[in-house]
Amino acid sequence: MDVIKVVIADDAEEIRLHLSEEISGEANKIRVVGLAENGYEAVELTKKYLPDIVLMDIQMETRTAGITAIGKIHEMFPMVKCIALTIHENEEFIFRAYMAGAADYIIKTNPTEKIVSSIHAVMENKLLLRPEVGKKLIEEYQYIHENQVRMKETLQVMLMINTTEYEILKMVYAGYTYRKIAEMRYVQETTIRSQINHILKKFKKSKMKEVIQLLRELKIFDE
């Protein structure tokens, strides 16, 4: 087997150097050809050296800089395989890394043998989707699907709400009390409560806090 050329991208210099020293060598058949401290440098070093593997820290200059860089490398150099580096198993980040084109992920604190093994497995196309990763991908897909269904149902209800109800709903969402809303709209509080009841019926909810929680989760009023 030829020596595997690797680029390591991590915003912590000590981690870059540690990984480089640990995985390099004839015994592992790995040669580190470049070290990057951010996503931009990782892409540039990939252009320059065309490595076989890029070990990409997920969180660098931004929380998802590594994921963005993986996506760019996957698009520009599909023959280069990226392995996401993470300090802990964050399901959302791991899922997004796979969707961006990562071939695997490695916990930075893993033993050197495990990191080297992952690099060789990815390089030789022997890596099967780990059971725990498959489970996470399925759970994430289910979460997205459920959110899409809830979003569709919520938007259908929002289309049934009249202008007055919409304005009141938005004020409740912003944290105003029924009494304050009544003062601001120059009506009796009983009028606001009556309109709230109409809103609850349309959402098929018994409490307004349930409606607000749903709207917050779906970011309906977020700009």
TrEMBL record:
The UniProt record lists the keyword Transcription: yes
Gene3D superfamilies: 3.40.50.2300
Coiled-coil region(s): none
Domain Response regulatory residue range list: 5-123
A Pfam family annotated for this UniProt entry: Response_reg
UniProt KW keywords: DNA-binding, Phosphoprotein, Transcription, Transcription regulation
The protein's name in its UniProt record: Stage 0 sporulation protein A homolog
Function summary: May play the central regulatory role in sporulation. It may be an element of the effector pathway responsible for the activation of sporulation genes in response to nutritional stress. Spo0A may act in concert with spo0H (a sigma factor) to control the expression of some genes that are critical to the sporulation process.
